[in-house]
Amino acid sequence: MPTKGVRALVALADPTRRAVFEALPQAPRAVGDLAATLGISSSAVSQHLKVLREARLVMMRPDGNRRLYSLDPRGLADARDYLEQFWPSALAAYSAALSEAEGQT
Known about the structure:
With about 100 residues, the protein is of the alpha+beta class. The protein has helices spanning about 5-15, 15-20, 30-40, 40-55, 75-85, 85-105, and strands at about 30, 60-65, 65-70.
């Protein structure tokens, strides 16, 4: 079973889903607004939002007869935590590459 961080990255791998996600940082938005902005059907937006909600990347709150979607910081934290586990080895590899390059000059 993938970790929460991996689920967030997998959810964002789809370009349309990523566009939906990227349309949300400024303010909460309704499905119809997202559909009009992105030029896809409301049904398609709803399907992408479902995946993004399951990955904890967006959250929904009712507003009268509409549902407003906004970014969920929990999923972003999950993705960051997942990627940060690789940071020490990436820095070590970068340092080694720099040392090797300096030794060749």
